[in-house]
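Course assignment 3, question 2. Fill in each field.
Student: A.L.
Task: Predict the tertiary structure for the chain below.
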Amino acid sequence: MGFIDTLIEGLEEGFDKAFEKHETTQGAARVLLKAEEQEGWISSDEFLEAYNARTYNSDNGQYDIKIMKNYDFEGGYVLWNRSKNFYHTGIGAEVYKKVERQFRGFGHEGVYKDFKDGDTFVLTLFRLRDTEYDDIQRLGNDLRKAFGQYPIPKIADKGQDEGLGDKSEPSGCAQAAFLGCVVVGLMLLLYLA
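Answer field:
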């Protein structure tokens, strides 16, 4: 293979990768922009696919640059478990990353459990700068007021395989506290008598 053939092949490969990068970027951007529309709910699968879209890094010759890391923003999000009609809201300096972490098990325990169990989730996103809010905490408070809070799984639901024992009996800590109250009450009665 001659120099010219190698050059042409390299140029074609570069054009293919540039076109692929453009298509991948455009597809991810379309999905995530839809999630930022007022009533733009997207599925968790669409979000995760867009978030995980990578572009080609010509420095090391690998697809290892997550596109959306460069476009993350400060704001809020709403996750809607459509299977149970529960909502989870949150805020963050990096909303895309925060939402992705919810579905990877580094957020609300109940959201992750339900997601892993196959419940259907959709989400919507809010850029702080595109809302009427100056303060991210106010945005978060109003999202919580509007959508409510996701239930926290009960400890008893975890069962005995996690070493939590039988929940029908009071724990040793509760028994000790009750006993302490009884002793203090008796001492107070003796002192007053």
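Instructor remarks: DSSP finds six helices and six strands in the chain. The beta strands are 42-43, 54-57, 62-66, 75-81, 86-92, 121-127.
Grade: pending
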